[in-house]
Amino acid sequence: DAYSTLKKQTRLLNLILQYHVKAGKVLKKGASMDAIAALPFLEEIGRAKMIGEKQFEEAVAGILQRMDAQLREIVERVKGEL
Description:
The chain is mainly α. It is built from four helices and no strands.
């Protein structure tokens, strides 16, 4: 985003890359891409660039927590189906 600081842009990219890596692991465990793509935290990543600098790190930490919890939930559902 052209209006974000370099630090914020780097953190956003890192957040997206973490999602990519973690989603790949969940896919390998048998989850569907549809289930992963429908997770609510993804909208938060898209809106994160609008968060002010003062609240940004706290917001990113919350997004990461929700990302982990929601991906873990999908893995548990997949395990239950096996």
